[in-house]
Amino acid sequence: MTTAVDELKVLVVDDHGLLRSVMTMALESLDGIRVVGQAENGRAGVEATLEHQPDLVLMDILMPLLDGLEATRRIKRESPACKILVLTGVVGSDAVLDVLRAGASGLVPKTAELSEVETAIRVVGRGEIYVSPQLAGPVLATMASRPADDVNAGLFALLSGREREVIQLIGEGHSTQEIASGLYISPKTGAQHKANMVKKLSLKSTRDLQILAARRIVARQAVV
């Protein structure tokens, strides 16, 4: 049975009162998750974070007084250990990438099922990155229209630290065996990282991942 020590403390920040209430009730029904507070705008969200010290903030983007972008920046500056998961109705816009750069660790659309929100909360809560498959495509499409340095930053925002290391080595032309050896992991783990990135970036195959990784290397060299 989950103990209080194991509970993930969550703060819900959204300017729609009904959504906050429904989301709070839904999250409270999940094992190991406890909602410690609510806030109706970004400014109140920052204040509530400092007061309640949640492990994770479920953050809206478009809000009065202070939007989710600036609220995320302030929370990460004041409470770096706090994780931010963005629950947004904004899809495929610059705001999505901007929030990732501001320090958010995940993105889920407001149209998502509770099961996906729960998955995202647990993934982000343990220090990993989660981007909903519904948003990964639009995010990458937005990145494609940006300069090379912006594309690299956006791409990195979608990946975990280990995945960034792997895609760097893929772009440099290393084989799975060489990547495994260089990172002191098993070839099976290296292959799993590739498979995870293919899914996370909405690619069709590891070949597409290799092409994307190579283009990233070329883009970086072009702006050096």
Describe the structure.
The chain is α/β, with parallel strands linked by helices and 224 residues long. The chain has eleven helices and six strands. It has helices at residues 17-28, 42-52, 68-78, 94-102, 114-125, 133-144, 148-158, 161-171, 176-183, 187-200, 206-223, and strands spanning 8-13, 33-39, 56-59, 83-88, 106-109, 130-131. A six-stranded parallel beta sheet has the order 2-1-3-4-5-6, with helices on both faces. Helix 4 (94-102) links the parallel strand 4 and strand 5. Helix 8 crosses helix 10 and helix 8 crosses helix 11. The protein is elongated, with a radius of gyration of 18 Å. The chain starts with 7 loop residues before the first strand and ends with a helix. Residues 148-152 have low confidence and may be disordered.
Q: How would you characterize the largest beta sheet?
A: 6 strands, parallel
Shape: elongated
How much is the radius of gyration in Å? 18 Å
Could you give the distance between the termini? 53 Å
Oligomer: single chain
| Average pLDDT number | 82
Strand content: 5-15%
Helix/strand/pairing class, anyone?
A: alpha/beta
| Number of helices, counting only DSSP H or I runs of 4 residues or more | 11
Strands across the major sheet, in which order? 2-1-3-4-5-6
The total count of strands amounts to 6
Order of helices and strands: EHEHEHEHEHEHHHHHH
User: What ranges have pLDDT less than 50 throughout 5 or more consecutive residues?
Assistant: 148-152
Percent helix, as a range, is: 55-70%
